[in-house]
Amino acid sequence: MKNLKEKLVLALDVPNLNEAKKLIQELAEYVGVFKVGKELFTAVGPEIFKVIKENGGKIFADLKYHDIPNTVASAARVLTRQGVEIFNIHATGGREMIRQTREAIEDEANKLGIKRPKLLAVTVLTSLDNKDLKDLKINVENTGDYVLHLAKMAKESGVDGIVCSPLEIEKIKKELGNDFITLTPGIRPSWASKGDQKRVMTPKEATKKGGDYIVIGRPIRNAENRVEATKKILEEMGEE
After folding, report:
1. Domains of the chain, each with CATH number or no CATH
2. Residue 201 carries which DSSP code?
3. Structure confidence at residue 202 as a pLDDT band (50, 70, 90)
4. pLDDT tier at 147 (50, 70, 90 boundaries)?
5. Closest listed residue to residue 8, CA positions, set 225, 224, 219, 240
6. How many CB atoms are closer than 10 A to CB 136?
7. Number of neighbouring beta carbons within 10 Å of residue 137
8. Catalytic residue numbers, as ranges
9. Is the CB of residue 180 less than 8 Å from the CB of residue 155?
């Protein structure tokens, strides 16, 4: 169960510090990583990172940076100083943005004598399907091919892994190696609704396919008994 805990990422998609604190304090015993997204970070800033650290959790800064290389690299240095374990950038920011970001976090971590954060690339958002990509004039036969193309480019440029749909885990691992990290939103327990994500999978399926981190939000946050819901998910992840 300990190793499974380290794979489980709870999405702190709440609007204020008090709600986030309640979740962290209630679930830190069962969740290894806490995801801080744009809503919460915009509301409370890096204060949330301190709360996560105080409760023994790891931080995934889900801020999806996408800007000119120098701007993203500078932001990445700040995240490194703040003790973030994982953060992400958009692969579509290009090779130079990725390369400079990787160099920045290595340099900053070396100066501080700490382990650098894991750098992940966002490929295709799980809310997008083939029709959505065509609307964006991205004409590919299937979403998975485009994900793989972006993942290869991002790996060559210096990322440690990608954020991807669970449906792409096997293909990514096969093409880019088992050491290439996959962090997957779009995870819904068999007893939960799909919500607004189109490319989804259960915790058991994602774990069996080799997913390194699985992100779960509403099925835990909205449960009547959050601890029991989390335990149930951990059990599902460990099923053969």
Report:
1. 2-238 (3.20.20.70)
2. B
3. very high
4. confident
5. 219
6. 8
7. 6
8. 64
9. yes
Type of residue numbered 132: D
Residues 6+ apart with CB under 8 A from 131: none
Helix or strand run (H / E) with residue 40: helix 38-44
The three-state secondary structure class of 16 is coil
Residue bearing tokens 């959505």: 132
Q: Report the sign of the C-alpha dihedral through residues 221, 225, 226, 232, in that order.
A: negative
Two tokens, residue 120: 């992940």
Q: What angle do CA 201, 206, 208 make, to 5 degrees?
A: 135
| Residues 110, 156, 37: CA angle, nearest 5 degrees | 65
Distance between CA atoms of residues 3 and 238, nearest Å: 10
SS3 177: coil
How do strand 118-122 and strand 33-36 relate by DSSP bridges?
unpaired
pLDDT value for 52 = 99
